[in-house]
Design a protein that fits this description.
Distance between the termini: 77 Å
Shape: globular
Structural class: mainly alpha
Radius of gyration: 20 Å
Oligomer: single chain
Helix content: 40-55%
Largest sheet: 2 strands, antiparallel
Number of strands: 2
Order of helices and strands: HEEHHHH
Strand order of the largest sheet: 1-2
Length: 117
């Protein structure tokens, strides 16, 4: 019977994990006063072009609205992070996808010379 209970528990836990897997990762966000809270954000590889335009254009509120889980946007507003805090947040969200911001390797160069002489 213990085996059945463990199996039931494992199945229930698996269902909870599946339900929680909504594409978001948990990332710390530091407020201006030093308080840090975890927020759910899309990993960097899932950021849309509009989010990147907002970030490059300095529209931090627009960027955060596009990458944060809708239930966590209010936490961002309450924390009122500094630019440094936003930068750390963006780096952590990008790292959660396995890549650093601005560190894309881009297309690799062919090792063969294609020019004919």
């Amino acid at each position: 019977m213990t085996t059945t209970k463990t199996t039931d528990t494992s199945a229930a836990e698996a269902q909870e994990l599946e339900a929680a897997d909504d594409g978001y990762v948990t990332v710390p966000l530091a407020g201006y006063d030093g308080v840090t809270k975890d927020v759910r954000a899309l990993p960097g590889t899932q950021w849309r072009a509009s989010a990147m335009r907002a970030l490059r254009g300095g529209n931090i509120d627009g960027f955060m609205e596009l990458v944060l889980h809708e239930d966590d946007y209010e936490i961002y507003e309450d924390l009122d992070p500094t630019q440094e805090g936003i930068g750390h947040f963006a780096e952590r969200a990008a790292e959660a996808a396995g890549e650093s911001l601005g560190k894309s390797s881009g297309p690799s160069r062919s090792s063969r010379n294609t020019r004919k002489r």
